[in-house]
């Protein structure tokens, strides 16, 4: 009986290790095929800067009808900057700095420049409200400026309309 059970034990572990290698081999083959396909796509020009530029050119024709252009096709720019007054916001007792000094400008087009300047009190109100609601950790973290800029841009686009505001430029962001 012991002789009959010995061959079964020898074949048992061998099949178990064969089953555990099968997904590994399949994954390796798929990874090699994917790498080869990616290399072929990049080397043939299907992917890469040229393909991306061609995609952007076809997207621009559709985008021109939906969004008014901010830059003229002849190279002259239709961009104006409306500078906003400096804001000083107290940060609270838990902050390492006591105040935030913030200055920004709104990038707009010539046609909307007067409207943006006229809505300046509402713009300052929205900015002041958002900056005062920030926690000290939001301001002091390394990527905090990018988050604040994005949030302010979205809020100002709601106030002004997306067609009047292209971007928010942060001119001064000082903690003291």
TrEMBL record:
<dbReference type="GO" id="GO:0005886">
    <property type="term" value="C:plasma membrane"/>
</dbReference>
<keyword id="KW-0472">Membrane</keyword>
<keyword id="KW-0145">Chemotaxis</keyword>
<comment type="similarity">
    <text>Belongs to the FliL family.</text>
</comment>
<keyword id="KW-1003">Cell membrane</keyword>
<keyword id="KW-0966">Cell projection</keyword>
<keyword id="KW-1133">Transmembrane helix</keyword>
<keyword id="KW-0283">Flagellar rotation</keyword>
<keyword id="KW-0969">Cilium</keyword>
<comment type="function">
    <text>Controls the rotational direction of flagella during chemotaxis.</text>
</comment>
<dbReference type="GO" id="GO:0009425">
    <property type="term" value="C:bacterial-type flagellum basal body"/>
</dbReference>
<protein>
    <recommendedName>
        <fullName>Flagellar protein FliL</fullName>
    </recommendedName>
</protein>
<feature type="transmembrane region" description="Helical">
    <location>
        <begin position="24"/>
        <end position="42"/>
    </location>
</feature>
<keyword id="KW-0282">Flagellum</keyword>
<dbReference type="GO" id="GO:0071973">
    <property type="term" value="P:bacterial-type flagellum-dependent cell motility"/>
</dbReference>
<dbReference type="Pfam" id="PF03748">
    <property type="entry name" value="FliL"/>
</dbReference>
<keyword id="KW-0812">Transmembrane</keyword>
<dbReference type="InterPro" id="IPR005503">
    <property type="entry name" value="FliL"/>
</dbReference>
<dbReference type="GO" id="GO:0006935">
    <property type="term" value="P:chemotaxis"/>
</dbReference>
<keyword id="KW-0997">Cell inner membrane</keyword>
């Amino acid at each position: 009986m012991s002789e009959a059970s010995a061959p079964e034990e020898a074949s048992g572990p061998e099949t178990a290790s064969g089953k555990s290698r099968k997904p590994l081999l399949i994954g390796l083959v798929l990874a090699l095929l994917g790498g080869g396909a990616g290399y072929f796509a990049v080397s043939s020009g299907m992917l890469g800067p040229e393909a991306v530029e061609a995609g952007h050119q076809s997207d621009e024709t559709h985008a021109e009808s939906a969004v008014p252009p901010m830059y003229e096709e002849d190279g002259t720019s239709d961009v104006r900057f409306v500078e906003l007054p400096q804001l000083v916001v107290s940060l609270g007792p838990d902050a390492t700095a006591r105040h935030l000094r913030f200055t920004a400008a709104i990038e707009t087009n010539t046609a909307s420049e007067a409207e943006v300047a006229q809505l300046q009190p509402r713009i300052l109100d929205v900015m002041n409200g958002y900056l005062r609601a920030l926690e000290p950790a939001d301001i002091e973290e390394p990527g905090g400026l990018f988050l604040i800029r994005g949030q302010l841009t979205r809020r100002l686009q709601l106030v002004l309309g997306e067609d009047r505001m292209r971007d928010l430029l942060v001119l001064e962001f000082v903690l003291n």
